Amino acid sequence: MAVQSYTISELALELGWAMNEMKSRLRQKIQAKINEHDPDLSFELLEIIGLLWRNDGINQQEIGSIVSKDKSSITYLINNLVKRGLVERVANKEDRRNKQIFLTQKGKQKRKIIFPWALELYEQAAGDLSEEEIRNALFLVKKMITNLN
User: Which Pfam family would be a valid example here (predicted)?
Assistant: First the structure.
């Protein structure tokens, strides 16, 4: 059996494909869990709520950039979250056109329900990996992201 030799760019491509496949599988499992616990939510809505759990008060442009969605998609998703009473738009004091997005109390409460089972899925994904392996992989991916910026 011949051992195939890969260039750095080919290995980086394989890594990108593997990360994309992992995200796709996690997305499917997370959506299945969402359907069990809160069928009114979607993965996209939960992605924004999860982002706000970590960065409450960021603006729509930042949210769009982080979740890789265009302005109209983000507006639609945030409108949906506002209608459900999960987030609110607050005008920035320096620039009233710039709206910051904050979780409501109801949005913050979702964390108590959703976060434990989301962590279970990521623990399943981590399997028998060590903390050091995960830290090294995280460092590697963040470095590659920095290289693209």
Answer: MarR
Q: What angle do CA 84, 87, 93 make, to 5 degrees?
A: 145
Residue 10 token pair: 């080919």
pTM for this model (two decimals) = 0.77
Phi (first) and psi of residue 88, to 5 degrees: -140, 150
Per-residue pLDDT, 33: 87
Mark the ranges of the chain whose per-residue pLDDT is less than 70.
1-3
Residue 32 belongs to what domain range? Answer: 27-120
Structure tokens at 128: 């028998």
**125, 26 Cβ separation under 8 angstroms:** yes
What is the rounded distance in angstroms from the CA atom of residue 19 to the CA atom of residue 126? 13
CATH number of domain containing 94: 1.10.10.10
Domain for residue 112, yes or no?
yes
